Amino acid sequence: MKNKFIGISDKSFLDLFSISHFALGFFVGLILFIFQKKIIVRPELFFIIGFVVLILWEAFEQLMRFINHHYPELAKSLIKIFPDCWFAEESLLNITGDLFTGLIGLIVIFIIIKSIS
Q1: Where are the domains of the chain?
Q2: Which of 8, 37, 57, 112 is 20 to 30 Å apart from 27, CA to CA?
Q3: What pTM did the predictor assign?
Q4: What are the contacts of 64-69 at 24+ separation with CB within 8 A?
């Protein structure tokens, strides 16, 4: 059970990349608010759209890993464009942690926006 919760990149529930997933959720929420202020009035819509964006991001990350595994020549070209860490395998526990920290980012920006509106 050692290091299953925090620490090991792409294996633990929380790792260094959890910070970027939190930021993703935070900025997705901020963008939703900026472009559609009415969405804050309907929190369920805010969280549904925000969480769908987080899931799509994870799907994109998994696509990069699929390409790396099944199409290594294409992956070599893509690594010149995208960070190579996007091509590393992730555990299901880590993917769950990524979605969780992104959702926390959404919640934080929602609370901030509601408190100043």
Answers
A1: 18-116
A2: 8
A3: 0.85
A4: 65/89, 65/90
User: In the chain, which residue ranges form alpha helices assigned H by DSSP?
Assistant: 18-35, 43-70, 72-78, 92-116
Tell me the two tokens of residue 113: 């926006």
Q: How many CA atoms lie within 13 A of 7 on its CB side?
A: 5
In the structure encoding, which two tokens stand for residue 66, read together? 């699929």
Q: What does the alpha-carbon distance between residue 28 and residue 79 come to, in Å, rounded to a whole number?
A: 25
Q: What is the pLDDT along the chain (117 residues), one digit of tens a residue?
A: 457 777 777 788 998 889 999 999 999 999 998 887 766 668 888 999 999 999 999 999 999 999 999 999 999 999 999 888 888 888 899 999 999 999 999 999 999 988 987
